[in-house]
Design a protein that fits this description.
The chain has one domain: Ubiquitin-like (UB roll) (Roll). Strands 2-1-7-3-5 form a 5-stranded mixed β-sheet. The radius of gyration is 15 Å and the shape is globular. The protein is built from 2 helices and 7 strands. It is 10% helix and 24% strand. Bound molecules: FE2/S2 (inorganic) cluster. FE2/S2 (inorganic) cluster (FES) binds next to loops. FE2/S2 (inorganic) cluster binds next to loops.
Length: 121
């Protein structure tokens, strides 16, 4: 099964990708220049912003809840579940990192905001 990926910040270019393979793999194979590092979902280098559609990225461990809520996905593990639209590259990273001096954490955010931290004290 394939889905269509639209890359909004690359002239809305369209790619057909396999639902069973990572977006990083499928898009790079078709000539899209994407940054990456570890390729197992741990380093955040390949993050992109999902602007529509759904992906399966259960294997990612790089993003915290805030980043997930901002729509970030980890291309080296994410597989498309529907047709999707993305913004890629460093231009898409505007909300990925947060400057603690300009935008300090609120008291309830001071504990590590890790997506998988449930059950720890
Ligand atoms: S390349 Fe490291 S998280 Fe994707």
């Amino acid at each position: 099964m394939t889905h269509t990926v639209k890359i909004e910040n690359r002239d809305n270019s369209l790619y057909e990708v396999d639902a069973k393979r990572s977006l990083l793999e499928s898009l790079r194979e078709q000539g899209v220049d994407l940054p990456y590092g570890c390729k197992y979902g741990g380093c955040i280098t390949c993050a992109a912003k999902l602007t529509s559609g759904k992906v399966d990225q259960r294997r990612q461990v790089a993003l915290n809840n805030r980043q997930l809520n901002e729509g970030y996905i980890i291309l080296c593990v994410a597989r498309p579940k529907t047709d999707i639209s993305l913004k890629i590259g460093v231009e898409s990273h505007d909300k990925l990192y947060r400057n603690p001096f300009l935008d300090p954490l609120k008291p309830h955010e001071l504990k590590a905001d890790i997506a998988t931290s449930k059950g720890e004290n």
